[in-house]
Amino acid sequence: MTDDYTPPKVWSQKGQNGGQFASINKPTAGAQFDRDLPVGRHPLQLYSLATPNGQKVTIMLEELLEAGHDAEYDAWLIRIGDGDQFGSGFVAANPNSKIPAMMDHSVTPPRRVFESGSILVYLAERFGAFLPADPTARTEAMNWLFWQMGSAPFLGGGFGHFYAYAPVKIEYAIDRYTMEAKRQLDVLNRHLADNRFMAGEDYSIADMAIWPWYGQVVAGKLYGDAATFLDAGIYGNVRRWHDEIAARPAVQRGIMVNKTSGEPSEQLWERHDASDFQTRTQDKIGTD
Ligand SMILES: N[C@@H](CCC(=O)N[C@@H](CS)C(=O)NCC(=O)O)C(=O)O
Description:
Layout: E1 44-48, H1 52-66, E2 73-77, H2 88-93, E3 101-104, E4 111-114, H3 116-127, H4 135-165, H5 171-194, H6 205-218, H7 226-229, H8 236-246, H9 249-254, H10 276-279, H11 282-285
Parallel strand pairs: 1-2
Antiparallel strand pairs: 1-3, 3-4
Helix pairs in contact: 1-3, 1-6, 4-5, 4-6, 5-8, 6-8
The protein binds glutathione.
């Protein structure tokens, strides 16, 4: 890596570029091997991992169940570090090879749903929940949901990548994305000064989309010491909103599903039944 790099006329891959995700980065799409996806007994089949994008959906599913909806689901683990997302079955569910992906087997043929925002809207519409009925509040929820889809890649793929994962610390890249991450946090902090939740009084899919990224970075849960680096204490309204949502039982369950790091008692690699939270966490079943 040098500071006098001149891009060639046509880019070509020169081996792996280093960093935590080097082994799964490729410039091409499509299946790399044959593997069917497992299918459990519930109509909704989720294929995911407990990254912030994955947590959005497991929080929504647990919130639906908590609210009494018949949203039982099987959650299967997709280990993106091992390349599971490039199996033929997963690529059929999501041609973009990214978690989360969901199949709805309550319809024939089963329907695929990919992109976390699309999955949240699909579930909200199917169960008539967590998307306000009032047109103004509903539009506001959609505004913030789409804001998240466009903004979080700067926080995760930009700030998080260059601050925490890149094999070298590049001041220009870290400065550029820190600036943008802090600007986005200020957007949220100002909005949450006058709003309990993103769409106003009602907790919605907009909160479920934004909380795993922006809430957790402010609470010190993402990218090592990023909260200190970002001076996250100045985003007090975001912290207040984070804490209120973090206290919800469905959120506490949702962030455990498909989790493979942290305390074994907080890791539920696969979820097939509500009782799994009591009986199938890694402290109960071991790590083999
Ligand atoms: N816009 C997508 C982003 C999904 C995404 O980036 N997923 C990451 C994990 S957080 C992934 O599967 N990465 C695997 C890879 O890049 O090969 C969504 O919101 O669903």
